Amino acid sequence: MRAILPTLSLLAAMGVSACDATPGRTDRAFSETGRVIAMSGGAGGAGNACFTCHGLEGQGDGIAAPRLAGLDAGYLQKQMEDYASGLRQDDLMARVARGLDQDGRRAVAAYYASLPVSADAAVPDSAPPILYAQGDPSRGVTACAACHGDRGQGTGDGGNPQVAGQPYAYTLEQLQRWKSGARRNDPRGVMAAAVRPLSDREAHEIALWLSSQPASPTRASAAASGSASVDAAARPAASRETRRPDRSDGA
After folding, report:
1. Distance between CA 117 and CA 60 in Å, rounded?
2. pTM, whole model, 2 decimals?
């Protein structure tokens, strides 16, 4: 029995060593590029593969999973960092984001930002809701267009993202989450303040109109806003309070 124990101990040590080496090689293989991460889930495994919810071309599922294709890379990475830290809460996305290191999150954000948006959407012919276009100063409602563009195309300034062409259910849910405080990853609470006075009917009208607008290619802000957005996400909340309202990063 005493002769067997050292042998068992040696085999156990060898087994641990082998287990340590193999996942390392596998993780590197599945995290080689942003596209590989999107299709494989990276080190987090196949259950975390982005395409299962967001589609092979990043166009979303048309219901609840948003389009990622063509969005600002800085915005996308900030959301991944916020999911990983718990600042933006979602059980599934937190697991996905935490399965990657920051390089992996950066790579997959850049990959989705590089994808073309769908070109088959009709040209919009409906006017935006008054609150979207003009806001309501008497109630403290800021015009959505001020940060997200007159057609939801994004402003290309400090990570304010495109919000056009996303599923109605997704956009409405985000408005409701901002309003209730369930979502709070916006410096200075700009989005929460903007939507808090909205009635359910007004939120519905804005979400429905935005869902009818065609997605447009991202404006040239990704390189400039990416590192700033991620750095801001990494700083303590108190230090982020000094950021200007026009740097909302919210949607």
Report:
1. 11
2. 0.76
